[in-house]
Request: fold
Amino acid sequence: MADRRLFHLLSLADLSADALTALLDRAERYLQGDAASMVLAGKRVANLFFEDSTRTRHSFAVAARRLGGETLDFTAAGSSTNKGESLLDTVRTILAIGADLIVVRHSASGAPALLAREIDRPIVSAGDGRHAHPTQGLLDLLTLRQRWGRFAGKHVLIVGDVANSRVARCSSAGLRTLGARVTFVGPANLCPASLRALGSPVTHDFDAAIPGADAIMMLRIQSERISGGAFPSLREYVAGYQLNEERLRRAKPDVLILHPGPVNRGVELSPAAADGPRAVILDQVRAGVAARMAVLERMQTTD
Ligand code: CP
Reply:
């Protein structure tokens, strides 16, 4: 039988509907409390975070340990990267210490793909530049599937700084693969018409789009990827693109509010919208552990 090992996970755009569904099915069982397989017993997962993280870093660590693995947690702060050590030399050093699987976050788009070419270990992207954040995409899909059961006929708005968002790229790819419709929404400087090349329409009119949405995924302005400032006026951005109670009054009553985190309260989301009954932001975080367990397990499994 063919080896169906998921050797690297660099993007969700690489995965078929069947492959995505298999991962979601497994993650869902973990979310429902299935006992973890000890597939990582005797193995070490290196979590290499060259860029800041709370959710992704800690949920990968919890996922690896729940599967019986050991973790090696590396953050660039305090490491010898500050003395000029390269990415490849750092990873080769970590491998010499001992690691069976590499989870990597990096500010450079393509850093996980570079490691996949150069390093003889399974590589999972935990987010690279503007390119991809596949496990975030998977946990977004899992959160929505838990509520909806299916994706066909559903319409998701992805709103805000789409241009600089790896989450928008990955989640929209997964949603389209599974049959949902996606629209990118934001001001022209953060959501240019050229983003249509990613396969979804673009609009700058948030108010007009809201009534047709089944879910609204709000994005943070990713200032760390923007040189020279994001826009002339934060006040105008908030007036046009903040999801708040007034806008929610025009939404479907059962609309879901997602956000990958971290949330900048009072900018893309009002506190009432972030904490209200339609927000599933902490459900996304919970789904992240299960989704990452499914991914780490799949990378160790052949069938
Ligand atoms: N969603 C996400 O990637 O969050 P962290 O940056 O905290 O990992």
